[in-house]
Amino acid sequence: MFENNVTRRGFVTGAAAVAGLAGLSTIAPGLAGAAPQTHDQHTEAEMATEAGALAMMTFQKIDGTPVYYWRSNRGNTTARNWQCTDAFYNALVAWIRDLRSLSSSYGSISYIVSAGFYVNKPGQHGAGTAMDLDHVRWSGGNTISPLDQAHASTNAAIRKRYLATEAVCRRRFRYVLDGWYNADHHDHIHSDFGGMPVRVLKDSESDTKFVQAVCNNFRGSGLVIDGIWGTNTQNAFNGLKSALGVTGDPHTSSSVWQSMCSKIATKGFANQNI
Ligand SMILES: [Zn+2]
Q1: pLDDT recorded at residue 17
Q2: 98 C-alpha vs ligand 1 centroid, how far in Å?
Q3: Coiled-coil stretches, from where to where (predicted)?
């Protein structure tokens, strides 16, 4: 996937592209293993800039599901042009198909709301390989709204639904930053192509905080959500794995981790403890 982005640099021409190239050459060495982006608030002006020469695709829907923008006009359902790389779009298609399948009891997905994919700034957004998820609406009337800080809802069912939605993101993306991760992500779930393949790593702050939040919200583990994988987190994770019937190593096997994420998502969308 990263090879695609690097290859595309060869096609970039013109003055506008020089700025793009400068940005890419800054981030490209870090794509494989760098820390996730922490500054993740995008302005309308940054998104209005055309990626143009960077050979991104433009879309208004992901696999037929509309993607709206509410940051400047809450609730609007105006079609909007978004951009990302072909490879990232393909991952988005896989992601939304997973989401449809795992949340099918809610009906179909009427639309999603994003705060940005390609954005004219450094990092994964600048490379066209990131998504900020603000909101999902299902045909049966359910919603999940990271935009409204659903991770911190006083309603346990909403917190489970948020974690279910994040678990689906984690099936397809390795760097997923949520409301527990830091203040920049209190109002959206960020997913990108950094650090692939998908799995859960003990030395990842974002992965560890997700595990801690899942253990607390589905099993009442009472962990401090500090991103540090200590003895209590290990014990809680062992209990979570066992209760979900997960065999194999989700720290090294993408398929084991994806299966575990699906099971978390199923429980979360059903508002069930684990
Ligand atoms: Zn983001």
Answers
A1: 37
A2: 20
A3: none
User: Nearest Cα to 253, choosing from 245, 261, 264?
Assistant: 261
- The yes-or-no verdict on residue 30 having pLDDT over 90 is no
Quick: pLDDT tens for 134-193. 999 999 999 999 999 999 999 999 999 999 999 999 999 999 999 999 999 999 999 999
What is the whole-number distance in angstroms between the Cα of residue 131 and the centre of ligand 1? 6
From the CA of 246, how far away is ligand 1's center (Å)?
A: 30
Among 55, 56, 105, which Cα is nearest to 81's?
Answer: 56
ipTM exceeding 0.90?
Answer: yes
> What is the domain partition of the chain in residue ranges?
2-198
Q: Which CATH class is domain 2-198?
A: alpha beta
Q: How far, in Å, from the CA of 239 to the mean position of ligand 1? A: 31
Ligand 1 center–CA 222 separation, angstroms: 29
- Residue 123, classed as helix, strand or coil, is coil
Classify each residue of 112-130 as buried b or exposed e, where b means 16 or more C-beta atoms within 10 Å of its C-beta: bbbbbbbbbbbbbbbbbbb
Distance 118 CA to ligand 1 centre (A): 9
Pairing label, strands 109-116, 65-68:
parallel
Considering only CA atoms, which of 42, 84, 93 is closest in space to residue 65? Answer: 93
Distance (angstroms) between ligand 1 centre and the Cα of 125 equals 6
pLDDT in tens, 189-223: 999 999 999 999 999 999 999 999 999 999 999 99
